[in-house]
Design goal:
Layout: H1 3-14, E1 18-24, H2 33-42, E2 48-51, H3 62-73, H4 78-89, E3 97-101, H5 103-109, H6 111-121, E4 125-128, H7 137-145, E5 149-151, E6 153-154, H8 160-169, E7 174-177, H9 190-203, E8 208-211, H10 217-224, E9 229-232, H11 234-243, H12 248-264
Parallel strand pairs: 1-2, 1-9, 2-3, 3-4, 4-5, 6-7, 7-8, 8-9
Helix pairs in contact: 2-4, 2-12, 4-6, 10-12, 11-12
Length: about 270
């Protein structure tokens, strides 16, 4: 059983929801990434999404775009990101790590070689924003052959046919994008998310994480009422940007500790 499957199985048994933070590898500097990943775990994270810097991050808003630019200035490439995961594994053998990024760096390296190197480094799953599931059979099969979970995005506009294709190919979890647009674009409408879940649950047997627009404990708690996982990205990347390299680790840990507390808080009956 994969680390992702084990993690979600444990959380389900405990009646808890997964907290999945995203940071961009190499931001604010490559030497800080492993320490920031450790801070995410110390803050209560269950899975880490690690962004692979790319020069044209079309699905990302300005906050994550700036983070990618800062990382690229320092020369961070896909192979460097894999080395960061390998270094993280020296102190943490349990927390699943999912790489999130774009097709170009993987295709330049070669899918087969990427999958082998990612597995050897300790990566657990891969989400490629611009691999539509209808064209991702080879991608999913190669990843699974190397014990990696292929993870896909779904959105409010996803058709039933696309949901069915994701159900066929995906493993680990499914990432549901709560908003139309790019990351960090708007505020979350938890009721609109909840309205979509019967349709998603009817076809998907995997855990469903919700991201885009989750910025604080209240929005995280609201999403957790229906989702299996809460994904937070832009708010954390912005926190790193504002805190600076010296303070980012504690800032991330404190922020996530508050989110973790909200997710784990039991409802009190009136």
């Amino acid at each position: 059983m994969s680390r992702l499957a084990t993690t979600f199985q444990r959380l389900q048994a405990e009646g808890r929801k997964a907290l999945i933070p995203y940071i961009t590898a190499g931001d604010p500097h490559p030497q800080h990434t492993v320490a920031l990943m450790q801070a995410l775990v110390a803050g209560g994270s269950d899975v880490i999404e690690l962004g692979v810097p790319f020069s044209d991050p079309m699905a990302d808003g300005p906050v994550i775009q700036r983070a990618a630019e800062r990382a690229l200035v320092h020369g961070v490439r896909l192979l460097d990101v894999l080395e960061m995961v390998r270094a993280f594994r020296q102190t943490d053998a349990q927390t699943p790590v999912v790489l999130m990024g774009y097709a170009n760096p993987i295709e330049r390296l070669g899918l087969e070689r990427f999958a082998q190197l990612a597995h050897e480094a300790g990566v657990d799953g891969v989400l490629v924003v611009d691999y539509p599931p209808e064209e991702a059979d080879d991608f999913a099969n190669v990843l699974k052959a190397h014990q990696l979970d292929p993870i896909f995005l779904l959105a409010p506009t996803s058709s039933d046919a696309r949901i069915a294709k994701v159900a066929e190919l995906a493993s680990g979890y499914v990432y549901y994008v709560s908003l139309r647009g790019v990351t960090g674009a708007a505020h979350l409408d938890a009721d609109a998310v909840a309205a979509q879940f019967p349709r998603l649950r009817a076809q998907l047997k995997l855990p469903i994480g919700v991201g885009f627009g989750i910025r604080d404990a209240a929005s995280a708690k609201a999403v957790s009422q229906v989702a299996d996982a809460v994904v937070i990205g832009s708010a954390l990347v912005q926190l790193v940007e504002r805190s600076g390299a010296d303070n980012a680790r504690l800032a991330l840990q404190h922020f996530l500790t508050e989110i973790r507390g909200a997710l784990d808080a039991k409802e009190v009956a009136p």
